């Protein structure tokens, strides 16, 4: 099956002329030869349209790849970025009859018996699922998300190809093992499979809504659990303007500069306060309410960070903002991301050469493509290892940069994030953090303290009590020896003092 899938990928690429897109920018001669060999192809459509249609034909993994590219206007031409943006909410829907049949199977009764009204025409269609508006019998307006039938099989085939490609990269490329392609693919596969379980997505939505309850920046829909299954998710219907429709937002009086700063704050709040962040923040998943708040949609991919990861990332971000490149280099060595024998001063100098040019410039003047390329070259020189657990965070940072560029080309990402991170770090150290940890641990202490006498008694009555007594005896013997040495040293000191006094008296 993987062989057939590979053949399809090659066939689709050739049919839509993806080879010409690459060759036209690298070798005109090879491009001309390809045109003569495959003369029957109709390549009259613009290259961006052909690329989008090819990605749609290849399925969800390739659609998601196109979604990420659409936010990186500093890396891809404008015509391609504009066309790939359509993948965010214009993926062709599957037949409504299939959606109705799936709902009837999951609910065990006709759709019209479950909902007071169910709109047959989907309002949005994505790579994994599509959404229909509906109304509950109590009049509540909801959005019903339904998984694409048969999508699991397609995804498994594509993941198999990615795993095979990752294995080949490790075997034939000198940098393959350092980049950990198989671990990266495994991490991506895990989150993609999780995205197929809509009960998990509903739980993610509920958690994020709880984290931002009462927030003045972000609105998260309410989940209607009684109507959710592993293939169906029903949530509150949200009304807003897609964040990509900048003209409409301006007409509504939305402050785009403030909106861009709020997006940065929301992201860093999710990452560093909660360790739980929306990891699929492309424009198709974000609306803006009439009051200028963000509305989050599509919670299939969420990232999590451990406390150690948060501390490490915060220290690195703040060190970058302060241009403390030595601290950045040392943090990488301490974390084991580069070999222990790495010279910190050399690594510091390399990081400075990459990062220093990007400061004191507005976002629109920074070439992140060149910056990323130079960082990759630095990574190769110092054998820096890719960290698979942070792949989602890196992907989300790319999305945040793309959104910030669209909303406010003058946005200074560093100045916007630095005060938040410094405030967060201050809360992690000092007496406030100490008081918070005491409060968090107090319930456990209240449980264990009354049990201490019994636990000590059990320990003394344990079958290893002879070993404990022997250890205590050895400690006592060592203390006796130390006491003897201290007495001898004291006597020696007195004798030396007496000799000195005698010499002074004689003199």
Automatic annotation (TrEMBL):
Q: Which domain of life is it from?
A: Bacteria
* Key words, A-Z: ATP-binding, Cell inner membrane, Cell membrane, Kinase, Membrane, Nucleotide-binding, Transferase, Transmembrane, Transmembrane helix, Ubiquinone, Ubiquinone biosynthesis
> GO MF terms on file?
ATP binding; kinase activity
Q: What's one Pfam family here?
A: ABC1
Q: Which InterPro entries match?
A: ABC1_dom (IPR004147), Kinase-like_dom_sf (IPR011009), UbiB (IPR010232), UbiB_bact (IPR045308), UbiB_kinase (IPR050154)
GO terms of biological process kind: ubiquinone biosynthetic process
Q: In which pathway does it act?
A: Cofactor biosynthesis; ubiquinone biosynthesis [regulation]
The question of whether Cell membrane is a record keyword is answered with: yes
Q: Where is the ABC1 atypical kinase-like domain?
A: 86-331
Q: Which residues cross the membrane?
A: none
Answer whether the UniProt record assigns the keyword Amino-acid biosynthesis to this protein.
no
Q: Which family does the UniProt entry place this protein in?
A: Belongs to the protein kinase superfamily. ADCK protein kinase family.
The record ties this protein, via PANTHER family, to: CHAPERONE-ACTIVITY OF BC1 COMPLEX CABC1 -RELATED, PROTEIN ACTIVITY OF BC1 COMPLEX KINASE 7, CHLOROPLASTIC
Write the protein's name: Ubiquinone biosynthesis protein
Can you name the source organism? Answer: Niveibacterium umoris
